[in-house]
Amino acid sequence: MRAPKGFTLLEFILYFALISIVISGITVFALDVIRTRAKAAVIAEVEQNMRFGLQRVIRTVRQATKVNVGASNFDSATGVLSVDVGSASDSPTVFDLSGGALRVKEGTGPAAALTSSRVNVTSLRFTKDSLSGNNDAVTATIVMSFMSSNPDPVYSYTATASATAVIRKD
Question: Where are the domains of the chain?
Answer without folding.
Answer: 9-167
